[in-house]
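Researcher: Final request for today, and then I'll write up notes for the group meeting. The sequence and the SMILES for flavin mononucleotide follow.
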Amino acid sequence: MWSNLCALVGTLTITFGVSLTGVHSNAFTSQKQQPKMTTLRTVIFLSSARTSAPMWGGDARLGDRVSNWVQAHLSERASKVGDEDVTHEVTVFDPIEVFGAGGALAHSGAQMSTPTFFTKDVPEGAKAMGEKIEQADAIICITAEYNHSVPPGLSGMLNHFGGSKFKCKPSGIITYSSSPWGGSRASIALQPILHELGSLPVSRMVHVPSVAELIKESGEWEQEDHRMKGQLAGMLDQLEWMAVAMKSQKEKSGVF
Ligand SMILES: Cc1cc2nc3c(=O)[nH]c(=O)nc-3n(C[C@H](O)[C@H](O)[C@H](O)COP(=O)(O)O)c2cc1C
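Model: Predicted protein-flavin mononucleotide complex:
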C-alpha cells in the first residue's frame, strides 16, 4: 500500500541521521542526560527532467550526482542545534517521476493546466505530495540553471502548491551546472519564488560548477577536500538551526 502510494507520488522517503550521544550506564544518568533528538522532515526538490543526452555527446542527468551527494551527506551527518541531536527524514520529489506517467502531477504538467489549489478535486497522488510538503520542516532545492533561471521541472512543482504548504519553513538552495558558473544565477531567480511561497531561503547557498568533473555518478567527490564541497555543511548548519527554531515556534503558536 505504502509503496504504491510512493510510486503514485513519485517520491522516496528515507530516514537519515546519527546520534551524537553515547549510551548511558545507569537509570539516574540516563534520566538526567536524556539526549534531545529532533528528526527534521526534509523535502528535496530536484529540477531537471532531462532523460536524453546531447547529440554531441555528454553525460546523463548531472543532477543525480548532486542529489546522491546531498543524500549521502545527510545520512552521515551528525549535527546538533543547541543540545538537540538533529537527523533528517528525507523525501525526494523528482520531476521525471512527478510529471511522468502515473506521477503525482501528471494530470496537470509543469505547465500547470490545473493548479492543485484551484480545485477540491485533487488526484490522490497530488494530495499526498501536498501533505508531504505541508508536513515538512525544511525544504532543499537542488537546481540546474536554464537560461540564468529556474528549470520548469522545479518551478512547475513549486507552483502547483500554494503558500500554505511552504510557510514557516526554511529552504536551502543548491545549484549546479555543467559550466564554470555553477548555476548561481538560478539561485537568484529561485529566492523570490520561495519567498512568495512563505519559505525563508537561508543565506548560505551551495554552487557546484562543472559537475561532471567534480562529482562522480555515485555522488562521491573526485577530490575529497575540494573547497566547493564544504559549502554544503555550512548551508545545512543554517537550515537546521532555522528548522528547529521554526518547528518549536509552530508547536507553541501554530502558523500565522
Ligand atoms: C534549456 C537549457 C538552458 C541552459 N542554460 C544554462 C545556463 O543558463 N547556464 C548554465 O550554466 N548552464 C545552462 N545549461 C546547461 C546545463 O547546466 C546543463 O545542461 C546541465 O547538465 C543541466 O542539468 P542536468 O544534467 O541535471 O539536466 C542549460 C541547459 C539547457 C537544456
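Model: The first strand starts at residue 11 and ends at 16. Residues 48, 50, 61-63, 144-148, 177-179, 181, 183 surround flavin mononucleotide (CB under 6 Å).
Researcher: Thanks, that's everything.
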